[in-house]
Write a structure and sequence with these properties.
The protein has 436 residues and is mainly alpha-helical. The chain has 18 helices and five strands.
């Protein structure tokens, strides 16, 4: 194979090299990677990507990475070594990365398969996005056509009424003309009769002017009603606009990855803010659960991986977490301890959105003395409802395509969240991350 590795394969190669570097004895660390090893585990692969990639080209370091893979990732190593090719369910980019590091004979073919799979996924994603855009624009066009048809019908009704009123005015005008003619005939007979007829004609003219003014006022009322209808139509799209802006922020963060460096401001309103004011929204498509096979529930790196997803919304089942970790404390002390830890975690991940949901059955309003940390939203369930129901409503309010994770160990909440479009993370992982 010629040319650089595909981006997904290269990223996983660097990730495996970073994990191997953490387990190497001090004496076996290459000089170019001494500084990289001092980085935090969450930053080592990203901040040290260039020296790690250069070190992988060395046969000595690559051999140590291969030994680490065979010891810690035996399934991927077996899939890469298989002469029959990797299993259909195996991630092609991971299998290709492992094959590249192990230098199996057919590693170029596996890398090309991974590149083709990535290109196919990208094309499929673009096609799906184009289809969704066409469907959304078609729905908007149909809605606009229906609105225009309604407005046209109202205008036609108003025009018909105006025509009837104008015809009535013309009839009255013709009647006035008849009176004038009769008055003129009477004037030839008598000057007194002519003066009387002239006065009647003047009175009829004033009536006609009053009728015209009334018709003009009617037209002005119809124009005001049309303007009000258009304003109502714009207000009805406010929820769709808010969801579309959230999805646009997420797509931009995923495409460019520079939101944190540029310190871009957040949007005016998020769907969770609308839910706190009583809003509601549609659900997303179901997604899988978080966590790789063989990883323990209390692995704190799960939380770091979730918060590293651009534009992520992390929803936490408050009492499900606190009662597992701080069950001996009072409810208020449990809330204070959880929120204090989440404040520090949200401060290190400003690109994420963190929402904690508590049951309101034990409190009437937000407890006095519990300050909400910056970057953390605190919600209490509505009267007569549980936090579980509020979490599902919060997930369904998010737009399709935005990454949403729910921290809970309640199996029913996890399954309902997955059906609504979110992924579940065990509460033990968050407790382990806060205690680290």
């Amino acid at each position: 194979m010629t040319g650089p590795l595909p981006a997904p394969v290269r990223e996983y190669v660097i990730e495996l090299a970073a994990q191997t570097l953490a387990d190497l004895p001090e004496s076996d660390v290459p000089p170019s990677l001494v500084a990289v090893r001092r980085f935090k585990a969450s930053r080592r692969a990203k901040a040290g990507a260039i020296p790690l990639a250069a070190a992988v080209d060395s046969e000595v370091f690559r051999g140590r990475v291969a030994e680490w893979i065979r010891r810690h990732q035996p399934e991927l190593a077996e899939a890469a070594d298989s002469a029959d090719g990797p299993p259909p369910a195996a991630p092609p980019e991971k299998v290709a990365a492992v094959a590249y590091l192990l230098r199996v004979p057919h590693w170029p073919e596996l890398v090309e398969l991974a590149a083709a799979a990535a290109a196919e996924a990208e094309v499929r994603g673009r096609a799906d996005e184009a289809e969704r855009t066409i469907r959304r624009l078609t729905d908007q066009l149909a809605a606009n056509q229906r609105s225009a048809a309604g407005e046209l019908g109202q205008l036609r009704e108003g025009l018909a009424a105006a025509r009837v009123e104008a015809e009535e005015a013309r009839r009255r005008l013709r009647a006035s003309s008849d009176r004038i003619r009769r008055a003129e005939e009477a004037a030839r007979e008598s000057v007194a009769a002519a003066e009387t007829a002239r006065d009647a004609a003047l009175a009829a003219g004033r009536d006609a002017e009053s009728e015209v003014r009334r018709l003009r006022g009617r037209v002005a009322e119809l124009e005001s009603a049309l303007a009000a209808t258009r304003r109502d139509s714009r207000d009805s799209r406010s929820m769709d606009d808010a969801r579309m802006r959230v999805l646009l922020d997420t797509l931009i963060a995923s495409a460019h990855g520079v939101r944190r460096e540029l310190d871009l401001p957040t949007m005016v309103a998020r769907p969770a803010d609308l839910l706190a004011r009583g809003g509601d929204g549609p659900s997303s498509a179901p997604q899988a659960f978080v966590g790789a096979r063989g990883r323990p529930d209390d692995d704190p790196t799960l939380i770091d991986e979730v918060l590293a997803v651009p534009g992520v919304h992390l929803i936490i089942d408050g009492y499900n977490v606190t009662k597992r970790g701080y069950g001996r404390l009072t409810l208020q002390a449990q809330r204070e301890r959880l929120l204090s830890g989440l404040g520090a975690l949200a401060g290190r991940n400003p690109d994420s959105e963190v929402t904690v949901v508590f049951d309101a059955t034990a409190v009437v309003a937000r407890p006095i003395g519990v300050a909400t940390p910056r970057g953390v939203r605190v919600l209490f369930s509505r009267p007569g409802q549980l936090a579980d129901e509020e979490i599902i409503r919060l997930v369904r309010l998010e737009p399709q395509g935005r990454p949403v994770f729910v921290v809970t160990s309640d199996r029913e909440v996890a399954e309902n969240s997955a059906a609504a479009g979110a992924r579940a993370v065990p509460s033990a992982a968050l407790l382990a991350r806060l205690d680290r």
